[in-house]
Amino acid sequence: MTLHDQLLLERTRRHFFRDCGAGVGKMALLSLLGEKAFAAGRHHAARIDHVIYLFMAGAPSHLDLLDYKPELQKWDGKPTPESILKGKRFAFMDSFTKETPKLLGTRRKFERHGRSGLWVSELFPHLGSIADDIAIVNSVSTENFNHGPAKLFSNTGSVRTGRPSIGSWVTYGIGSESKDLPGFVVLQSGNRGPRGGAALWGSGFLPTAYQGIPFRSVGDPILDLSNPKSITADDQRQTLDAIQDLNRLRHETTGDEEIRTRISAYEMAFRMQTSGPELIDFAKEPRETLDMYGAEPGKASYANNCLLARRLVERGVRFVELYHADWDHHDDISKPLDTVCREVDQPTAALIKDLKQRGLLDRTLVLWGGEFGRTPMGEVREKGKVGRNHHIDSYSLIMAGGGLQRGVTVGASDELGFSPAEEKIEVHDVHATILHLLGVDHMKLTFRFQGRDFRLTDISGRLLMKLLA
Amino acid sequence: MLRGALLWVVPLIGLAQQDVFFFEKNVAPILRVNCHVCHSEKNLTSGLSLETKESILRGGNRGPAAGLIPGAVKQTGPLKMPPGRKLSDEQIAILEQWVNAGMPMPAALIKSKRPGADHWAFQPPKRPNAPSVRNAAWAKNPIDLFILQRLEKAGLNPSPEADKATLLRRAGLDVIGLPPTPAELAEFLSDSRPDAYERAVDRLLASPQYGERWGRLWLDLARYADSDGYTIDAPREIWKYRDWVLDAINKDLPFDQFVIEQMAGDLLPNPAIEQLTATGFHRNTPSNYEGGIDFEQYRVEAVADRVITTGAVFLGLTLGCARCHDHKYDPVTQREFYQFFAFLNNVDEVDKEAHRKDFNKPFLPLGTADELKRYHAWEAQLQALENELNQYKDSIPGMGQIQDPGVIERDKHIDAHRRRMPKITRTLIMRELPEPRQSYIHLGGDFTRKGAVVVPGVPAALPPLPGTGGRPTRLDLARWLVDRGNPLTARVTVNRLWQKYFGKGIVDTENDFGIQGEKPSHPELLDWLAVEFMERGWSQKALHRLIVTSAAYRQSSKLQPDAKAVDPENRLLARQSRLRLDAELVRDAALVASGLISLKVGGPSVYPPLPPGANSVTQVKREWNTSQGPDRYRRGLYTFFQRSAAHPALILFDAPDATVTCTRRIRSNSPLQALTLLNDEAYFEFAQALAGKMLKEAAQNDPARLGHGFLLALSRPPTQREQARLLKLLSAQRDAGKDDKSAWTALSRVLLNLDEFMTRE
Predict the structure, then answer these.
(1) A3-454 maps to which CATH number?
(2) How far is it, in rounded angstroms, from Cα B699 to Cα B710?
(3) Angle A233-254/B740-753 helices, nearest 10 degrees?
């Protein structure tokens, strides 16, 4: 019996076989050990093999970056019409009930970029320069106006805790191609961790083998990756060989195939000990590449993480999620926004360019965005400064990669950027589309828990047809 | 037709037959064609069935239907039925007349006929007769007869009993979560009395470590953690509840009382401190305090979680499915979800903006009489200051409050007073509001969309609450859960215990005894155990003893080729199963092998070494001051559990993440587990200590030392091949110039990484 067959016999078999479609469960199990999945496990031909989700924690101000609203400019400083606010709920409602908030036009210049003529703000010069390679998705809406639940929703399709994250669903569904790295890797930069912590990349009711594994860009990339002090590589190999031999003897005695899985897990752990340090060692990256990203070896930064994301994808990792804080600009939408845009613009554009020049962009999805957007109304918390509040009815994402239109804007908000003007694009739709690109039907990827077949997209999710190439 | 109807509306006694005729001829066709597609007993859209008089009177999520029907069909208000079209005037008139006449219907349509009430799990368990078997001599107690009967029917034989050493290690790991020490093992092996094993089991059940082992599993259900979750994830003091669980299990508090105290200890007459502490069970829900939230939303979220948890833990029902709509499979309507919700909706928790320090109220302060006196004086002073502030605020008009110097001054003063809170242990408890909150059906599960008002009640498919006269309380619910007539609680509980001992429950879907759940593999055994459990006074210890001393439990776990072909999943139990240890137990077993373990029971959670950077992923950086001294070596269940960055050694070995109730742990097998056991600072320290014991405690020769290491780590001597292999490693280490300490550490690292080490055989 092979390792995979053995895994199939583990206790979740009932779940795997029920409704997942032929072979999907098997694919899922492969990712446990990072073995290469075969395409037969998917529901249809995949357009991409990898996802890099650049999660902008705190919620970027789409109205100052990607969703250009000349009409809002004209209304700048005027009280928000009551008809728009009626029946809406906002975070920090109290500040709105005291005084009608004033509309706030952007202070940033927008220009058309590339042959496609996408509108991008001056805060994103590098992203503007690759406008023809990206798609801007406007008028995305979400369900909850607080960071924690909204981040959960973006990641798990539910504002409640306890559901698997999208990276877990994907590795559960189709496994990974990496033999010696986990299938779902989480990176983090910025001044603090994302609100919600481990629940954002947790596996929920799926086996824990599918949870996202946080990597660090300095020190040990994976916890406990280094040998204990005083243990040499030879010592480690000797010890491991003895463990494996004794486990084989135990397998002979008991006949339990689980022991063979354990033997494979230990082999992979040993391989990870070699591949991990190699992964984060940028020594072989040419100077131009480092400069393109703005990466500095040995530093914990978004730029380094973008480069790391490319290296992970190159090594077959299925799903990379990269968190960068902090975009929560309530008080001041001027300098603090400049700062974080400077941190993010160049590396993000570099990642897309780098993937493209290596031929990887055709098989990778790069998704950039936060948990919601920010209000067309200004928020004044301190005299002389203006920021924007949380806004869930319409915000923007960037998507680029295989199977997608390039140089297009999909979806549109109304003239003031308040609500969708055309179709409403929901988070579930984005999830459904990501799964579709990976060759997975979001309606068929299910897991039975507490008497119900759960999906990433719950009971919703439509493909964003206008976005698909 | 109208003429006939007009005649009929004159209310005449004795015309029942005529009423029925009118209904059959005029009303029923309208309902059948226009209404029943959505509003039937089977398809309860919006919780409403228009099939029976009872269901119409009860109504759906918008309230009783009789009063709504005329307006809805006339389409004068917001509710317009049927959707997208309108009945004819004549049809509307008929319906209106029928409603006005009190909706006469044939006898067969008076009572609601909810499907699912005949489901096996909703029938009270009855003690079945023990079946007769051919090989009765094998049986140690009635459990075995039920198991053997099925094996014999399938033409299978049970496996031989596991050898004594395996048996003691198995029972130790299962009952107290710790492997035996070499001395305990030697004593057991030399005990030739026929009941040596039963005596050993009794010793285990009497040990305080039994409460730690089974208490921890109860904490899985309680979603216990030491921080409050969501984004702030601040430390939360509720370890007193954890200690209460351990203590109650050690005392063998009867399970019915165990449940009542946790669900509603605060509502018992003159509740003792312990009974209040017990109510922490439902206070382990995560809490959200990030800026800009609606506090009521997260309070509602917690109450819904309590409904779902209560359903899963005691009833084995997926009540959560009925939060937004009626349950798709089980006889639980959305209305019934909110009736259940109404029991749990009256706790004095924050539901609007409050001071940060009060977020987790209500608390129970605990301490000596003096400490409590100081605390209460402080609390009274705080209350007085706040009252004074509010009075002052009332004297200032609207917007001026924020900048008013008097308010600012008073706020400062109050903050200073809060900082002077006397140091005291507190724990989160349930405390009922003087007046219960109004509970509603939340349309679509949305707390802002309030439907019909509901009062507390239990699903109609289950036995009714005993009449209490007034509005039923959480205490009534608690008593109903453990009432002898409740068909689910005992079954669900024995099944969960069974699951831990055999790897699978008799009902494989341990949290779903509903219509979609798996059928029991041994229905009669399940019922026998449930009845036995109740009749033995709900004694958990008695149940454990019964299972652990059965012949079925004592079988070898070695694979049986014959049985595998017939029963690949081992549902019939022709052998025991090898099960990887729970997360905490992997640590505990290494602590025992290394001799480092501290067996202190209870107290605040502790901070064993954490790999650098493990908690760097949270929004708020939390200190992790690694414990020194014995607290560094406490059992895994005492490790401080930070929800947003739980200790990786726990999470990687599938400890639950404490966001929702966990009724079964998954057993995964991953490379990251290998990295932890091979390289983690804590495990390396254990390996070094184990090497130290091998060098110090055994005779001064390699085979004796190795033998001692095997006993410490695996509770058995090595085989010849194992010994040869490890002595080879030893000599390789020596050839590489390692000193004794290092070379033996290499060997102990092998032992602590073996599959067998982390497996209950």
Answers:
(1) 3.40.720
(2) 14
(3) 40
Say how many Å lie between the first and final Cα of chain A, rounded. Answer: 42
Residues B477 and B340: their CA atoms lie apart, in Å, by 9
How far is residue A453's CA from residue A18's CA, in Å, rounded to a whole number? 9
The whole-model pTM stands at: 0.83
Distance separating alpha carbons of residues A307 and A292, to the nearest angstrom: 10
Last residue in a domain, options B90, B109, B128:
B109
Mean pLDDT of B1-25: 58
Q: How many Cβ atoms from other residues are within 10 Å of residue B183's Cβ? A: 9
From the list A9, A148, A265, the residue facing B674 with the nearest CB is A265
Residues in chain A with CB shorter than 8 Å from the CB of B324 are: none
Across the A:B interface, residue pairs with CB atoms under 8 Å apart total 246
Give the 3-state secondary structure of residue B296.
Answer: helix
- Residue type at B619? Q
DSSP, res B557: -
Domain annotation covers residue B388 = yes
Task: Say how far apart CA B569 and CA B554 lie, in whole Å.
Answer: 18
Residue B6: pLDDT band by 50, 70, 90 thresholds?
A: very low
Contacts 24+ apart (CB under 8 A), A1-8: A1/A257, A1/A260, A3/A33, A3/A35, A3/A260, A3/A261, A3/A264, A4/A29, A4/A30, A4/A35, A5/A257, A6/A257, A6/A258, A6/A260, A6/A261, A7/A32, A7/A261
B704 within a domain of the structure (yes/no): yes
Cα–Cα distance, A150 to A328 (Å, whole number): 13
ipTM for the predicted complex comes to 0.86
**In this complex, is the C-beta atom of B557 within 8 Å of any C-beta atom belonging to chain A?**
yes
Strand partners, A365: A51, A401
> Closest Cα partner for B204 from B181, B230, B171?
B171
Q: Is omega for the bond preceding A297 within 30 degrees of 0, making it cis?
A: no
* Cβ B751 vs Cβ B710: under 8 Å: yes
Number of domains observed in the structure of chain B = 3
Distance CA B457, CA B322 (A): 14
Question: What is the per-residue pLDDT across A287-312, written as a single tens digit (0 to 9) for each?
Answer: 999 999 999 988 889 999 999 999 99
**Residue reference for tokens 């591949």:** A275
Asked whether residue B418 is assigned to any structural domain, the reply reads yes
Are A199 and B726 an interchain contact pair (Cβ–Cβ within 8 Å)? no
Q: Which residue out of A262, A374, A383, A458 would a mutagenesis test of the B interface target, given it has the greatest number of B Cβ atoms within 10 Å?
A: A262
Measured distance CA(B487)–CA(B124) in Å, rounded: 4
| Helix (H/G/I), strand (E/B), else coil: A462 | coil
Listed residue (B467, B481, B454) closest to B309, CA to CA: B481
Does some domain include residue B431? no
Domain extent, residue B395, equals 368-423
Q: CB of B471 within 8 A of CB of B435?
A: no
Give me the residues of B, 335-374, that contact A with CB < 8 A: 353
